[in-house]
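New to this. Explain these tokens.
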Amino acid sequence: SGVHLYFGSFRELARLDEDFDWEAELWETITHEVRHHRESTAGEDALEDMDWAEDENFRRRAGKRFDPFFFRAGTAVGDGAWEVDGDLFVERELTADELEDGEALAVTIDGEEVLVPLPDHIGDEHYLYLDGRWDEGRDVALVLVRRQGAWEQLQRLFTRPRPEVLQTSVDVGPRSS
């Protein structure tokens, strides 16, 4: 077994970031690859799952098609909450009654209850990006999932239609003191 490091890849990263830390990046890359080897030897897939989730998150950020539940392979950070590559995803399943009744939904994000206005249409899954309260460069997404009845689930099992995945943003204001 071996780890191959390619100078050109690191050089390109350094060219894009004037604060590039060669030593830290080399250390992170080597430990990551050694962990892959150790987990593979032990029959573990945790790091493979995380790499896949990060790839899907990259696709999402680039506006490409992505697996709508990729974030579940990330790091669990609470009940129904995961982190992938610094981005936070909080999943909430909504019933038909909640969709009809609610104009807003109370959810807990980073230990704080936030009142979030519901979009008019959520599709099958809806990434609702919460802006205005968290660090820039970090996505905080409330992933709304429309609960499906048993009959609809059975139909989807046989027809496999592509789910309707929507994405919008909403400003939830600054963090309260």
User: Anything to note?
Assistant: DSSP finds five helices and eight strands in the chain. The helical segments are 7-16, 22-41, 46-61, 96-101, 150-159. Residues 22-41 form the longest helix (20 residues).
